[in-house]
Kynureninase (Paenibacillus albus), 432 residues
Amino acid sequence: MSNIQQDPNPYSIEYARKLDEQDELAPFRNEFYLSPDSIYMDGNSLGLLSKRAEQTLLEVLNAWKIQGIDGWTQGAHPWFYLSEKLAAMSAPLVGADAEEVIVTGSTTVNLHQLVATFYKPQGIRTKILADELNFPSDIYALQSQLKLYGYDPDEHLVRVASRDGRFLHEDDIIAAMTDEIALIVLPAVLYRSGQVLDMKRLTAEAHARGILIGFDGCHSVGSIPHQFSEWEVDFAFWCNYKYLNSGPGGTASLYVNRKHHGTSPGLAGWFGSRKDKQFDMEHQFHQAETAGAFQIGTPNILSMAPLLGSLELFAEATLEKLRQKSLHITRYMMDLIEHELSTFNFTIGNPLEDERRSGHVSLEHQDAARICKALKELQHIVPDFRAPNIIRLAPVPLYTSYSDVWETVQRLKTIMADKQYEKFANTRDVVA
Ligand SMILES: *Cc1c(COP(=O)(O)O)cnc(C)c1O
């Protein structure tokens, strides 16, 4: 059901402005560095810089400037405890206890760590279950982990097929949970279509068959709520530079359910030690009794610092309100697209039900690559292209206004009506 049909003129800029006036989260926009000359719709790929994130980065830099090595234990944010401090701040976003989360490494490295830890082929249970729509890096990591065991990934990596190239059916995934599967790794949200998988159901079904299961939260954390502990998800990992606005290359996160604390990390390193033991410098590894055990080496302190400020904003706005606005503003965008662009052959490629859709609108079009170029170069809208035919538009609830969404759809209409996209080749750029 559309939420804008009651107003006499729900497709007008006046209506968009009215929604902005009623938007409780609107003040958070002032916390961000928004370009005055363009509209940013790419927060699902790289979130924007906030003033708080800038401030905490400068504070950490200053500790280095003033205190040198003593920054490890002194200053506003002692570096030795920063991963744990950020974990406690992140835990509410994933429905976990502080000890079940750690901020460390990068997404793909964390996946390697978790697979190295939890993939234990035994008897006929030697296969890993994934899906054919997942992000390539995850698939490469799984393939290489299988090779380390001497398995042929073509045979041992089972990828659940999508029926339509957009979505996965939970029933199909469950049907693939055979007694040959040792481990399951799935996205929480599919990066193209934005489909939210039913993590609770999939976890229960995996466990009923004696299979461990973990989720990639890159496109879900900071966008939708999770209850990892309550659902008993075994592990998860995510980046912090998309919806969590921690900056390019920002340090990533992982979650390990407390029932697995004490399991030896597949890839051990001294930052996985108990804090009180780490500097004993013994060759006997005393692993932390928390998710901290899955850290490897010295954390990238400067790449973690912006997350401190950014997570403050999430605590203030609350995930509940962010999700509420996100659902509302993406619905608004879809309504406008249907009304304004109906003659231009776009297909909305994300799920339409609220429980199954996430923070971005996935627009499909055969000329998607060059429509994106026209959006950016001629109309000053920053979209996100995903090959072969997807325009992702993310009205991020912390800093996107309803007027931004209205403008975006109008400019998209201009590009289509005037065929402005024909000035560009329909191929992707190096970084898309
Ligand atoms: C963004 C993203 C990644 C990125 O991994 P990095 O190691 O941070 O480069 C991995 N998986 C998914 C699903 C993503 O969306």
About this structure: Residues 106-108, 135, 137-138, 187, 191, 216, 218-219, 239, 252 surround pyridoxal-5'-phosphate (CB under 6 Å).
